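A protein record pairs a chain with a discrete description of its three-dimensional fold. The shape at a given residue is found from the number at the same position. Here is what such a record looks like in full:
>
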Amino acid sequence: MNSALGYEKPLTFISEGNQLVGILHTAEQDKLVILCHGFTGNKIENKRLFVEFSRALVAEGFDAFRFDFYGSGDSAGEFEETSISHNIANLIDAVIWARKRGYRDIVIMGISMGAATCILAAEHLDVQAMILWSTVPDMKQVFKSRLGALDEVPNIDKAQEFEGWLIRPSFMYDAFNYDIAASFIKITIPKLVIQGMADEPVFVSGFYKLQEIAYPPADFMEIPLAGHTYQTPEHRKKVIRQTCLWLKRHFRG
């Protein structure tokens, strides 16, 4: 799609030997925001949130690249084969891909599990800033709040159904190896963390915990009455606007 501000085109890149699919929104800028979707999400996100955000970024002088993790959306693999480790590797390879295209400044952005992926991958990345929406604060707490007791995860790698998706126990075994808070406290690049205050309690309390341990510079913003994926037009507009204003302050010229 072409527009007065640039154009949008599908692109692929290889990560761990698998083809991943994304959409590049570009007006040939030298600054890029890479968008990471959440668990069971994809490069469009709920109510086309990532489409709206990517187009707003181009209007503000940033290119945007939204892509599907392995096993999600149009990318290779099946959803039940996904893992946090795959997501981290995919994001690392997306940044490498972007550097090869000549981007000077790269910002990683994620929502929910995508935000956790950004935090966990940060130590392996040369990026200039990080944006986190509705961050998963602790893997085990989030899965426990949604799936119940996790003291007895099955020892067989048989997929279980969750909201119409198949999830293998290996996904949780992998996820529980990661300490999001321990990784977050080490991140020294500029950070913007936004949280909808009508989200599940585990996310809201996690937002405050991250605020307590954040290494500066870090900015924390609350969106009153907003849900986990900013489902209403008003909340989408607000989270996108606040994020764009923050980016413009940090990347002048």
Remarks:
- The two ends are 27 Å apart (CA to CA).
- The first helix runs from residue 49 to 59.
- Residues 2-138+179-250 form a domain with the Rossmann fold fold (CATH 3.40.50.1820).
- The chain has one domain: 2-138+179-250.
